[in-house]
Design goal:
There is one protein chain. The chain is mainly alpha-helical. It is 39% helix and 7% strand. The protein is built from four helices and two strands; from the N terminus they run αααββα. It has a two-stranded parallel ribbon with strand order 1-2.
């Protein structure tokens, strides 16, 4: 959801990568539906495994509780967002998670694009 919001809000101003330390086989259908409710189609997306190369190629790394499973490289900006995991949850439970992610992404876009950085 965070990557979809970031792509939607920032367009080509920010390059977005999305991956997980233990990704599911498919995107939760409730997540797909919740994002569709706000006009973002992620139905064709598939979970990807987080690689050290993806982290190394990034300037800012947003984690959501992956702890030691996430590669660490000095000089990168790491932000760990404490959010409920939408895995296995229905639409009613996913909506507030979606809204919390959207709010954080709005702030991130503002921060990254301030002063011509993005």
């Amino acid at each position: 959801m965070a990557a979809a919001f970031l792509t939607h809000l920032a367009g080509d101003r920010i390059e977005v990568r999305s991956a997980g330390s233990a990704p599911a086989e498919h995107v939760n259908p409730a997540v797909v539906e919740a994002m569709a409710e706000v006009g973002i189609d992620i139905a064709a997306e598939s979970p990807k495994v987080l690689t050290a190369e993806a982290v190394q190629a990034s300037d800012v790394v947003i984690t959501m509780g992956c702890g030691d499973a996430c590669p660490y490289f000095p000089g990168k900006t790491y932000l760990d967002w404490k959010l409920d995991d939408p895995a296995g949850r229905g639409l009613a439970a996913v909506r507030p998670i979606r809204d919390a992610i959207r709010a954080r992404v709005h702030g991130l876009v503002s921060e990254l694009t301030a002063g011509g950085r993005g």
